[in-house]
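Let us begin with a simple case.
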Amino acid sequence: MKLIDVTNNHSDLVMEQLENTDANFVKVFSLGPTTIIYSGAATHKDVLLLNKIRNIKNAEISFVLENILETTLENVEILHAPHIVELSIPNED
């Protein structure tokens, strides 16, 4: 699997997130057919995995945990929905 930074292709999404949430930064990645939206705020980091065609695979979740959040499954709150997974982790002080 390979993450490709496509943040510049989603400038409207990035601006909307920065204006309407507590996020300090927003990055958008492509992981094949899955879009990854990574945002960080003072108190937490969130990753949203989106795939319009199929549900998110466990391998994709594991890849994001290791390569973006740099943590393990035990430290993350996970919300599953059809075609979407949200991962949230509190910032360490």
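The second case is a distinct protein. As before, the sequence precedes its structure tokens.
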Amino acid sequence: MSVSTDLQLDPFALARELSGKHFFGGEFRPASSGKGFPVVNPATGETVAEAAFGEAADVDAAVAAAVAAQKEWAKRPVRERGKLVAECGRVLDAHKEEIAKLIALETGKALRTESRVEAGVLSDAFVFFGGLAPELKGETVPFNPSMLTMTVREPVGVVGAIIPWNVPLLLMALKIAPAMVAGNAVVVKSAEEAPLAVLRVVQLINTVIPAGVVNILSGYGPECGAPLVAHKDVKKVTFTGSVETGKIVYKTAAEKLIPVTLELGGKSPMIVCGDADLDQAIAGAIAGMRFTRQGQSCTASSRIFVHDSIHDAFVEKLKEKVNAMKMGDPLDESTDIGTIVSPQQLDRVQSYIAIGKEGGATPHVCSAMPSDPKLTKGLYVQPHIFTGVKNSDRIAQEEIFGPVCCVIRWTDYEEVIAQANDTEYGLAATIWTRDLKVAMDAVHRLEAGFVQVNQNLVVQPNLSYGGVKSSGLGKEASLEAMLEHFTHKKTIIINMK
């Protein structure tokens, strides 16, 4: 079951090598049942590998490996753990091109505009959290002069991490790197649509860390994810995915009284004021809508509120820029926009496009479908910019997770703030204006966990990230996340009389 750790730049060959495997206890393992499921290249419809079908027996074995490794890992000096985690980042950096090609192959995300960027941030996350190791410190408490009173931070134990398919590399790193530094062992459940690149990452970091500290299983939610969350030896769950599944995870964890971090959906507002720099706002809309990722992002700025005075100019410039983007083979360096990840997701996106049209909104269809005959079975959909949309319309209220955005005209500032907040979600928001007073007012009133002014940066290490309302619980990507979510605080009192 071995797979070479030598650099492998042919993603098709690497996919075949990784086929049919979990990784736990420091080595590749087949599924206990011997079953698998296909991994499909969404650009062509061809099966490129078979993932191991994880079930409860596989979960039991992986968690047992994590339990066996965790106590010894926690005993290591924290700075030593930090150095090893940072070294994982350096190993991953050396392999970032092969990882980028593999993620492009299995998810359909364009190599140049998306997958290569994500692979770079992946390695940076490990180096960042490795450097935070010395911050795992306690406090002395002025309780009583005759008593030495202090706190220490201790690991929670075994962490179950369930990751999504849209940004699997980065979101796995933001879960496992701080958990490792804090002294925990981790069992990851990958998304069934994207099991290969993250499997390769776990193999590579296991060349640095002790066996069993980080383990990974592939499989579906009911058969693999649910047993992981419910397992008696899993002491913390961190989950990124849909609101519906997040609620199920939360309920199961509540039965065990264990802590949970949830990063769920979003329907993020982008408010463009009449005085905004139009070119800057257009660039922000393209970046914020994640068009190069086919809109498959929980932070996507899919509700764009544009002041009446610049609305028409904004729409025309946005259409012009998106029209200039090339759809094509994700592994082609000239491609800007790749594919939707799966047939099911494509059906969902197309159904919302139909809902928008039926509701009376005007669709502006941008870019062009690929002309390469090899891609005729690919999961491509053209970006749609809808105008004439009301904030109460379904396409403006429900998360689509595709290249579909609504441009909504506004005139009254108080009304647009109210509309921006009129959603069950609260993950991200942006405001675009030259007026500092307006910007400062908006950032305090927008109901979101991640608010920006005149920019639309993606999530990255050292920017505390997480939502409010139905967008989730807790923060990721920061020192706060490592301390509050992957350790518990113990109070120690020593009587010195």
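The CA atoms of residues 107 and 123 lie 19 Å apart. The longest strand covers residues 147-155.
Keep these points in mind for the review questions at the end of the chapter.
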